[in-house]
């Protein structure tokens, strides 16, 4: 009985150690902004898809990540660029429609 209790206590304290080195981002939780640098050059014709991430507790900025045709590369778009503002308006209009 004593060894069972000792084993259970060890399990409770050792279980969290098994997640050492695991990225929190990998389990769907973002602790910071996704975009470090942004692109402002006009490239609408190269874009396959766009994701809009509104400000959150972990990032005060609105972030737009575009996936490029062909390469699948993901880039962050500058939300202050006039052409990007139009993309944001379209995304928001489609979400409310």
Description:
The chain is an alpha+beta fold and 97 residues long. The chain has a domain at 44-96: Beta Barrel (OB fold (Dihydrolipoamide Acetyltransferase, E2P)), CATH 2.40.50. The protein has two helices and three strands; from the N terminus they run αβββα. The chain has helices at 2-14, 82-96; strands spanning 47-53, 63-68, 74-77. The longest helix has 15 residues, at 82-96. Residues 4-27 have low confidence and may be disordered. This is Chemokine interleukin-8-like domain-containing protein.
Label this structure with key terms:
29% helix, OB fold (Dihydrolipoamide Acetyltransferase, E2P), signal, 3 strands, 97 residues, three-stranded antiparallel beta sheet
Write the layout of secondary structure elements.
Layout: H1 2-14, E1 47-53, E2 63-68, E3 74-77, H2 82-96
Antiparallel strand pairs: 1-2, 2-3
Order of helices and strands: HEEEH
Under CATH, the topology of one domain can be stated as OB fold (Dihydrolipoamide Acetyltransferase, E2P)
What is the 3D form?
Answer: globular
Residue fraction in strands = 15-25%
Low-confidence stretches: 4-27
User: Which structural class best describes the helix and strand composition?
Assistant: alpha+beta
Helix content: 25-40%
Radius of gyration: 21 Å
Average pLDDT figure: 74
Question: What's the CATH first level of one domain?
Answer: Mainly Beta
How many β strands by DSSP?
3
Please tally the helical runs, counting DSSP H or I stretches of 4 or more residues. Answer: 2
Function: Ligand for cxcr3.2. Chemotactic for macrophages.
GO cellular component, one term: extracellular space
GO molecular function: chemoattractant activity; chemokine activity
Main location: secreted
